[in-house]
Amino acid sequence: MNIQTVGVVGAGVMGIGVAQNLAQTGHQVILVDISDKILEQAKQEISKNIRFQGFFNKSEKTENPKEVLQRIKFTTNYQFLESAEFVIENTTEKWNIKNQVYSQLDTICPKESVFAANTSAIPITRIASVTQRAPKVIGMHFMNPVPMKSMVETIRGYHTSEETIETAKKMLAQMGKECILVNDSPGFVSNRVLMLTINEAIFLLQDQVASASDVDRIFKTCFGHKMGPLETADLIGLDTILFSIEVLYESFNDSKYRPCPLLKKMVDAGLYGRKSGQGFYAYT
């Protein structure tokens, strides 16, 4: 089965990356968000990202941004998803929002459509429980920036069928990606480890053990990481980090997932990282 029309719900950082990747691999994309302003910003961001790709990959032929954007329908109307063969959801890591989104998707999308949750920490089985198609719900945890990352952490929910897993693998292959399949658990593999690392790095900063740049330098120079934990937090978004660690704290009832007070303070101050222009580092 060659999937042609894909719905993408949420035009934040991850949704933009997923929509761009899909359009660049020849798919017709329906990108849905709650306001025209957000969608216009998404359109501009995708155009800018494609130009940057062309600048950094001069040896590869890159499409004209206008041609890519022609494959994306930007809309606030969920009803357009009635033609989607596959839907990738990328909304905020808040259960009340995801609950409403999936209930809506379930009534609009064809019964054959697969729902893929691009979530950082919320269990796939919980998401599937608010639909009438639990066997067709799977987790697809894309990494940022989506078009440049070739591997996707894919999560099997309690009811996810083998047919859905195979469909998801084919969908990812069409996007030029592979997957590692893991079982469902809050945070899965990547974020159950990564969120703890980032949260502890923020505690180090709060306790004045080291500066942000020195914390990151240790991880890059001693362990060979491309980015340090605080740089990674800025890239992901500190609000998303906080939502994710709160999900882990609530899910496991374990104090090791207690969000660092400094993280909460920075989110309250609107210091989200790259997307706000200021996090642990300043971005211009």
TrEMBL record:
<dbReference type="InterPro" id="IPR008927">
    <property type="entry name" value="6-PGluconate_DH-like_C_sf"/>
</dbReference>
<feature type="binding site">
    <location>
        <begin position="10"/>
        <end position="15"/>
    </location>
    <ligand>
        <name>NAD(+)</name>
    </ligand>
</feature>
<dbReference type="InterPro" id="IPR013328">
    <property type="entry name" value="6PGD_dom2"/>
</dbReference>
<feature type="binding site">
    <location>
        <position position="93"/>
    </location>
    <ligand>
        <name>NAD(+)</name>
    </ligand>
</feature>
<dbReference type="GO" id="GO:0003857">
    <property type="term" value="F:(3S)-3-hydroxyacyl-CoA dehydrogenase (NAD+) activity"/>
</dbReference>
<feature type="domain" description="3-hydroxyacyl-CoA dehydrogenase NAD binding">
    <location>
        <begin position="5"/>
        <end position="184"/>
    </location>
</feature>
<dbReference type="Pfam" id="PF02737">
    <property type="entry name" value="3HCDH_N"/>
</dbReference>
<feature type="binding site">
    <location>
        <position position="33"/>
    </location>
    <ligand>
        <name>NAD(+)</name>
    </ligand>
</feature>
<feature type="binding site">
    <location>
        <position position="144"/>
    </location>
    <ligand>
        <name>NAD(+)</name>
    </ligand>
</feature>
<feature type="domain" description="3-hydroxyacyl-CoA dehydrogenase C-terminal">
    <location>
        <begin position="187"/>
        <end position="283"/>
    </location>
</feature>
<keyword id="KW-0560">Oxidoreductase</keyword>
<protein>
    <submittedName>
        <fullName>3-hydroxyacyl-CoA dehydrogenase</fullName>
        <ecNumber>1.1.1.35</ecNumber>
    </submittedName>
</protein>
<dbReference type="InterPro" id="IPR022694">
    <property type="entry name" value="3-OHacyl-CoA_DH"/>
</dbReference>
<feature type="site" description="Important for catalytic activity">
    <location>
        <position position="141"/>
    </location>
</feature>
<feature type="binding site">
    <location>
        <position position="120"/>
    </location>
    <ligand>
        <name>NAD(+)</name>
    </ligand>
</feature>
<feature type="binding site">
    <location>
        <position position="98"/>
    </location>
    <ligand>
        <name>NAD(+)</name>
    </ligand>
</feature>
<dbReference type="InterPro" id="IPR006176">
    <property type="entry name" value="3-OHacyl-CoA_DH_NAD-bd"/>
</dbReference>
<comment type="pathway">
    <text>Lipid metabolism; butanoate metabolism.</text>
</comment>
<dbReference type="Pfam" id="PF00725">
    <property type="entry name" value="3HCDH"/>
</dbReference>
<dbReference type="GO" id="GO:0006631">
    <property type="term" value="P:fatty acid metabolic process"/>
</dbReference>
<dbReference type="InterPro" id="IPR036291">
    <property type="entry name" value="NAD(P)-bd_dom_sf"/>
</dbReference>
<dbReference type="InterPro" id="IPR006108">
    <property type="entry name" value="3HC_DH_C"/>
</dbReference>
<feature type="binding site">
    <location>
        <position position="275"/>
    </location>
    <ligand>
        <name>NAD(+)</name>
    </ligand>
</feature>
<dbReference type="GO" id="GO:0070403">
    <property type="term" value="F:NAD+ binding"/>
</dbReference>
<keyword id="KW-0520">NAD</keyword>
<comment type="similarity">
    <text>Belongs to the 3-hydroxyacyl-CoA dehydrogenase family.</text>
</comment>
